[in-house]
Sequence to fold (529 residues):
Amino acid sequence: MNSERVFTDVLVIGSGIAGCVAALTVAEDPELRVTVITGAEDPHESNTYYAQGGIIGRGPHDSAELLMEDILRAGDYVNNRAAVAILAEEGPRLVQELLVERLGVPFAGASYEEPEYIREAAHSTERILHVADATGRAIEEKLIVAVKSTPNITLLTRHTAVDLLTPAHHSRDPLAIYEPLSCVGAYVFDQREGRVRAYLARKTILASGGLGRIYLHTTNPERARGDGLAMAYRAGARIINAQYVQFHPTAFYRREAPRFLISEAVRGAGARLVDANGRPFMHKYAPEWKDLAPRDIVARSIHREMLETKAERVYLDLRSYMPADEIRSRFPTIYARCKEYGVDITRDLIPVVPAAHYFCGGVWVDEWGRTTLRHLYAVGEVSCTGVHGANRLGSASLLEGLVWGYRAAQDVRRSLAKEGAELDFDPKDIPPWYDEGLVEVADPALIHQDMITVQHIMWNYVGLVRSARRLERAIDDLLHLQREVDKFYRARRLTDGLIGLRNSVQAALIVAQAAWEHKESRGCHYRED
Fold:
């Protein structure tokens, strides 16, 4: 085998719920070779792992129609109704078949026949399955065990996708430019060896997650920096709804502490948002829902309250509404994390601020996860099925990753069976990565400073409340930074940080330009002008 090229039937970029479900479902055909790559050292590291609240099931008083209405209402009725119907009808069945029966995820309750369903903000009934306050972690741990134990899946950590391979852009054959856009794999950077290989694949599934790290305050882990969105954009894939960045209303806030999620399940369990004097305030901004309003309304309400009171944070009061033993039992992860930073949530108010949380836009896909590039699929947060519309309903993201990871894999298997083993491109036409003559490695201090610049631009100008003047300033600043980063990128040997910086600047520009183009406020895109 040429050490510069690696061949696989299916390349999966990302190891969260969408990527792992896709890989496991494709690998049910023992003849297919699947390669899963993640830039993280620990394959669990993903937005899935940090999802606290839960995943939507089918509650005792629930129906597909009721779930659809809740999703549509949260999304300001600009959702793709066909996609919403697929999620509402197929999702609960796949939770049972894949997560409960196949993987054995230990959801709360005596048994799946008598599970514990809880209610979250903007849901009209109890339908959320959970594993205490660490549902995503429980799911991800089971998925990674299954992936590692499947013989025809190769899982590679510390492997960062650099760019999607498209013959129209990369082929040595000049006539390839006339062919429809297609994807034949990706250039992948091996962090351990410091080299790039071409991973050639018959089908590629992009499952790289979100972009919260392009913002100053976010609940997302370090690798949620928009890599997949930027790669797909450069490859020519259609991107939609990029203006819709959902801000979670409640991230833990201490100046010396990292931001981490305080699940809306805390408000679902009765907690109230209060000011520094312990006075509730949500009735002033959302009298119908109060503390259980949709996330965008709660986040902007907190933002307004902070501005009006000149406060740098507000608080969650759980202690007044739940006994201490029940708090520790129901929210053990949140209790332990807050305790690390001197806050005992059984006795103290929890200091919180809004933070970038979930990207509702992304790479356009159809009902099977197919993008506008042949052989390229996108699933999970990097994709846009249209399920979420202008704002995501809580606990719908894990379900969407599950459903579209499964559906994309089904389509991959059908397509490969129909197409046969023949490749529709000549592997020899795809050149190896060229970095000859580049010796100097990018200075991590410069990368860090540029990332901070991106995060401040996005937080101040493309955040919770937007205006034409702010967005124009953001676009100007980001375009200038992109030119500088591009020169830097082309003159240095690759590192994971340099790849991430390049992608973050591109992802930030995509969001800022979409926000500028869309003058009408909808859902989590709010224009004060």
Remarks:
- The chain is about 35% helix and 15% strand.
- The radius of gyration is 22 Å.
